[in-house]
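Tokenised fold entry reproduced for everyone:
>
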Amino acid sequence: MPMDVLVEARGLVKEYGAGRRVVDDVSFAIGRGETLGLVGESGSGKSTVARMLLRLVEPTAGEVRYEGGDLPAAGSQEMRGMRRRMQIVFQDPYAALNPRMRVREILAEPFSIHREKPVEGLAARLAEMLRTVGMEESALERFPHEFSGGQRQRINIARALALRPEFLVLDEPVSALDVSVGAQVVNLLRELQREYGLTYLFISHSMPLVRYLCDRVAVMQGGRLVELGDCEEVCDSPREEYTRKLIAATPEMPVSV
């Protein structure tokens, strides 16, 4: 059965400075409701690819397609509208939150930027957003420094889901967390995907974690895509020596199904 493609990268290239190429001819598709893992060492280009998919970074060459159409240029009015449908959760949960804002203000910001008034009222929506990620409504009046790393990442996830997007880029969302706390966040992401039919691009350097969460995996090395396939197949029978080294380099993560 053909895949219902939501997001597609076609021949993406990114160069900086005097022809320094950090992403070189990367192509893949992500099906609606799928989780694609994008794996590689630091500096492999995976975060740059993710930012090009979201038009946070403009590609030097190639194209990004969303539901079969070209994604508008960054900064355009059309791309502003697309921001509602695609969001990102960053690696460092504390750096992604304004320390001077209460959680109420942080979660309300997307509604203000996009001039949207929730039908049920803003206060009710904010409380619902926190409950969705397993937190109490009382958190709304507190500041980011009052929470643990795992709680801060849950707040980031709640904010990313505020406008009910279809596509989330998860840029190493648990790498800055304690292993057991990270496992709880990973399981939360699985539950949210099942509940809301989300599509994920999950960026990581951990093959065991990708195997647990993802349907397919794309392996990057030196800016190029070196392996792409079903997670189980790639993890059990990798074609590339580089993929084998990634699998050997990361221990199993204690997650529970």
The chain is about 35% helix and 25% strand. Residues 179-196 form the longest helix (18 residues).
